[in-house]
Amino acid sequence: MKERPKLGRGLQDVSRFFLGDNLREEPKEEAENSAAGPRTIFICCPFSGRVQSVVTANLALELARNRHRVIICGNPSSDGISTSSLMRSILTRDENEPGKALVSLYGLPEIVIHENGMEAPRDEALSQIPDKGIGSDGAADSIILVDRLITIELLLNSDQSDEYIIITKADEKSLLQCYAYIKTIHACSASSRTHVVLDDVGRDLNGNAVFKKLAGFVRDHLGLVIHYLGCLINDEHLDRSITEERPLVLFAGMSGAKDSLRGICTSLLEARWE
Amino acid sequence: MRLLKPVNMADSARIIRICAQWLKEGLGLKIVEYRIGNAFTGSIDILAANTENVYLVTINNDRLSDALLCALTGYRWYLENRDFLARIYQTHEIDLSLPPLLMILSPSFPSEIGSILKLGLKADVRLFKYLILGSEEDPDIYVEELFTSRLHEDAPATGFSDLKKELRIEEADLTDEEIGEFLTAMRV
C-alpha cells in the first residue's frame, strides 16, 4: 500500500518556504539506489595478474566481513594464479555447477566465485552472474568484483558505466600506463569511476605525493576526479599466503600487507564522489 | 688565502661583458651579438651559439621578474625575427635552424622556478646563479648551474611509439605531446 504523505500540500509549502530552502526528497533517492542493482567493480592490474587476484581475493573477504554480498567473476592469470586458487583452503565446490565455487564463513554472507574461462568477453562474464544471491532487497549491498585480464582494446569495446580499481606501480612508465587506462575508461563512459592503488611504493617514495601528481594531471588534462585507495605493501606474509593458498586477511598475524589491504577496503567503502 | 667578497656592481653593460667572457671560456659558446632587439618589442642581452643550440641569454642584475619578462619577450622577438636575422648573419656565424635555448643568469632564483619554466615553456631552459666577487676593478665571477630542461631529450626521435607498444597502450589515443607532458609532470 502506498504511503500517504503526512503533510498536506499547503503545509509542505509552508515547510519549504519558511522552514528550509529545499523540499525533502531523500526517500525518493533511497528508492532509486535500491533499484540501481549491485555495484560492479573491475580490478585492473596491467603489470601482474597475480597481484590483481591477490587484491580481489582479499578485498572480497574484507567486503564480506563488512556484511556485503560478494560475487567474483574470475579468470586465472597467465601464471596460473586466480582468485579461487588463492582461496583454495576455504573453498567449497558445487558439483552440479562446474566453474562455480563458494566461500562460506560463519556469520558472513557467502562469497560466490564464477570461473568463466580465459577468453570470455567482459559482458558475457557479467551475464553469467545469476540473480540468485542478489535478491532485490540486498542488491544495494551486493558487490560484483571482476578479476580478469582487462586490456585497452577490451575497454574500447565497452560503453558501460562501471567502477574500476587500477593497481599501478609508482614508476613513470607504470603511471603512464595507468593514465592511459583512466583516459580510455572515461572516453568510453564518462560516468565511470576510477580508484587507484599503488603497489609496493617502498620506503623512499611517498604514495600520497605520487598519487597527488597523477590525480593533478588527470584533473588538469581530462577534467576528472580519481580516488586514492592507498598503497599495497608487499611482505613475507603476502608471499606465504599465495604459496599456501590461504588468504592474507584471514590467516596472517601482524602484517603490513594485511593492514594495507584492509585500509584499501575501508577507503573503497568510504569513497564518496561529487 | 685570498678572501673574495661579493661586489655589488651597478653597471649592467659591464656585468654582461663579464658573463659573456664566462660563456666563451666556461661553456665554449660563440658570442654572436650583444643587446639585440629593444625593450619595447623584446630584447636579448647576448645572442650566442654552439653546434647544438642558439642561446638567447638574459642577465639579471636587478629584479628577477623583469628579467624573466625580458627573456620571454626576447624569445618571442627571436622567433618572430628569425628570417630577418638569417639575412644579417652568415651560416658560419650562427646556424639559426638550431633549436633556441633560453639561458638566464641571475644572482638568485626562487626554488620552484625550474618546474614552473619546464611546464610553461616549449623551449629548453638553462638557469645559472652567478656571483661577482673581488673588486670592481678586478672582478671574478662564480657561476653555478641550477636547472636544465631538455624537452627534446624526453621525446626520442621515433616519438613514443616504442613506449606505447611496450606498455600496450597504443590504442589509448595518447599523443606524443601528452605523453611528454605526463612524464615531465611526474618527474617534477
Q: Features of this protein?
A:
heterodimer; A: about 270 residues; alpha/beta; nine-stranded mixed beta sheet; 11 helices; B: about 190 residues; six-stranded mixed beta sheet
Whole-number mean pLDDT of chain B: 86
Straight-line distance between termini of chain A: 35 Å
Relative strand content of chain B? 25-35%
Strand order of the largest sheet of chain B: 1-2-3-4-5-6
Q: How many helical stretches of chain A?
A: 11
Major sheet of chain B: size, sense and barrel closure? 6 strands, mixed
Distinct helical segment count of chain B: 7
Strand order of the largest sheet of chain A: 3-4-5-2-6-1-7-8-9
Tell me about the biggest sheet of chain A?
A: 9 strands, mixed
Average pLDDT over all residues of chain A: 77
Query: What is the β-strand count of chain A?
Result: 9
How much helicity do the residues of chain A have? 40-55%
- Secondary-structure class of chain A: alpha/beta
**Most extensive interface: pair and counts?**
A-B, 21 and 19 residues
> What would you call the quaternary organization?
heterodimer
Shape of chain A: globular
Mass-distribution shape of chain B: globular
Distance between the termini of chain B: 41 Å
Sheet-strand content of chain A, in percent, reads: 15-25%
Question: Would you list the SSEs of chain B in sequence order as H and E?
Answer: HEEEHHEHEEHHH
Helix content of chain B: 25-40%
Question: How would you sum up this structure, described in words?
Answer:
The complex is a heterodimer of chains A (274) and B (188). Helix content of chain A is 41%, strand content 18%. The longest helix of chain A is centred in the N-terminal third of the chain and has 17 residues. In chain A, 41% of the residues are buried. Chain A has a 9-stranded mixed β-sheet, with helices on both faces. Chain A contains 11 helices and 9 strands. Chain A is of the alpha/beta class and 274 residues long. In chain A, helix 3 crosses helix 11. Chain B has 188 residues and is α/β, with parallel strands linked by helices. Chain B has a 6-stranded mixed β-sheet with strand order 1-2-3-4-5-6. In chain B, helix 4 links the parallel strand 4 and strand 5. Chain B is globular, with a radius of gyration of 19 Å. The interface between A and B is medium-sized, with 21 and 19 residues.
